[in-house]
Specification:
Number of strands: 10
Distance between the termini: 58 Å
Order of helices and strands: HHHHHHEEHHEHEHHEHHEEEEEH
Strand content: 5-15%
Largest sheet: 5 strands, mixed
Length: 458
């Protein structure tokens, strides 16, 4: 059985070699191999890139979920923002190919899941030590972005040995979170990491204008999965760990995976692939690209600048799995200069808050020693961003994820007041139904924040 081949894709050109945040991003190059709607516009189905049928579907979807009290529109009279932004709603529509009944079913199920498991409470009160333990066994953000501005995550499977997995599973207890529900604690720790990606990483990347399409919020991740040196027995032992996480993430965090590059595949990988591909829907499977030893460096270079690619994979970035993120110069400038001699990255959960009339603030939350913390650790410098016309795309109000919760926090007809997650794997859920324009394009979690940002104490 052959592994999936990398589809023909454009070679994106980055403009991050220019002075930090000094000019508008250059236009994104377009594929020339096909002439479908999605190929003419790689962001088809995203904010600012909707066809007329897709725009109508979005409007109809908003009306439908508002009628079911799953969504609160923005209010001009009070100035309250909508409970969920368009980027979030479009993720659910793209996952169902703009089929409204299918998107509604997944959206409603996710709202109920978030309420049952108190996902927002989970993230706000998550024990910092437990969070860092979970971070060791899931994909980690490098602090860098690909040529399209999408955050790059790396997952080294060989690090998930028996010792590390035993320690992770042993640490799955109720003491580290106030959230309760039917989802196993070890998986709830995974979703605390997804929420970090949603509530910190993606908004930060959205606000940086040095990317080809700054009008479209960043809602997905680019992933490098390194399986070199992993034996068949280790794969088998990890099967349940990866399958459970993939299945649940696919259901509740749709369309947050742009693509996965799998490198270092052993000769027996076709056997492993026969298990893995069953965990995902066809759209998600199409985003997984298995690269041969001779193709990895060349292919990754098409999507990632050398300065943003770890040395291990042919780039220039001095970063390896287990390290804290290293922000690129433009991101560092946007959130504050690196303190002299400091490379500390604040551990645990972090959220963005947007106080009225103030610049967005990154706030470290979670708990330490059983006591909740709330400390401003960074400020987004919006002056230069405003000059590039992109402020407003990503930092959510009141520290909520861009999916948000209802502005007044009121329950929605028994549905959760919590907002939608903006993260996870692929699209799948129930079987796809015919949708609008055959959309199947898509756009992954971890760490916290740093004193690379301007440190501020409340």
């Amino acid at each position: 059985m052959s592994a999936p081949k990398l589809q023909t894709t454009p070679s994106y050109t980055s403009n991050r070699g220019a002075p930090p945040i000094s000019r508008q991003a250059s236009a994104m190059s377009t594929p020339i191999s096909r002439q479908t709607t999605a190929d003419r516009d790689p962001l088809n189905g995203h904010v600012g890139h909707l066809t007329e049928p897709q725009q109508r579907a979005l409007s109809d979807f908003k009306r439908t979920i508002a009628e079911q009290r799953l969504y609160v529109p923005a209010s001009e009279s009070t100035g309250e923002k909508s409970s969920h932004d368009d980027a979030t709603l479009l993720r659910f529509l793209r996952a169902r190919k703009f089929n409204i009944p299918g998107a509604l079913a997944q959206f409603k199920d996710t709202e109920q899941w978030r309420q049952t498991n108190q996902i927002d409470s989970l993230y706000e009160h998550f024990d910092v030590t437990s969070y860092e333990e979970a971070r060791k066994v899931y994909p980690q953000w490098t602090g860098r972005r690909d040529k399209r501005g999408i955050p790059i995550y790396v997952y080294v499977i060989s690090q998930l040995d028996n010792k590390n997995m035993a320690a992770y599973n042993k640490g799955a207890s109720s003491k580290w979170t106030q959230a309760k529900g039917s989802t196993p604690p070890k998986l709830l720790r995974l979703f605390a990491l997804y929420e970090n990606m949603l509530q910190f990483v993606l908004p930060l990347c959205t606000h940086l204008p040095d990317r080809p399409s700054p009008e479209a919020p960043i809602s997905s991740t680019c992933n490098i999965v390194d399986i070199s040196g992993v034996g068949l027995k280790q794969f088998w032992n990890l099967k349940s760990h990866m399958q459970d996480a993939s299945t649940l993430a696919t259901a509740h965090y749709p369309e947050t995976l742009d693509r996965i590059f799998v490198i270092g595949a052993p000769s027996f990988f076709p056997t492993v692939w026969s298990w893995i591909k069953k965990w995902f829907d066809p759209v998600t499977t199409s985003k997984i690209h298995i690269l041969g030893a001779g193709d990895a460096r060349r292919t990754l270079a098409n999507f990632i600048d050398p300065a943003d690619l770890p040395k291990k994979y042919g780039g220039e970035l001095d970063w390896d799995f287990g390290m804290t993120p290293i922000l690129d110069p433009n991101a560092r400038q946007a959130v504050g200069e690196l303190e002299k001699g400091s490379h500390h990255w604040v551990e645990g959960p972090v959220i963005w808050e947007l106080p009225p009339g103030q610049e967005p603030k990154a706030v470290a939350v979670g708990s330490v020693g059983g006591k909740d913390r709330r400390e401003v650790v960074a400020i987004m410098h919006t002056e230069e961003l405003q000059g590039n016309g992109v402020v407003g795309n990503g930092i959510p109000p009141n520290g909520m994820a861009s999916s948000g919760m209802p502005p007044n926090g009121a329950p929605l007809n028994g549905a959760p007041p919590n907002g939608m997650p903006v993260n996870g794997m692929g699209g799948g859920y129930p079987p796809d139904k015919p949708g609008v324009d055959g959309v199947d394009a898509a756009n992954g979690s971890q760490p916290a924040l740093s004193s690379q940002f301007q440190n501020v104490k409340i």
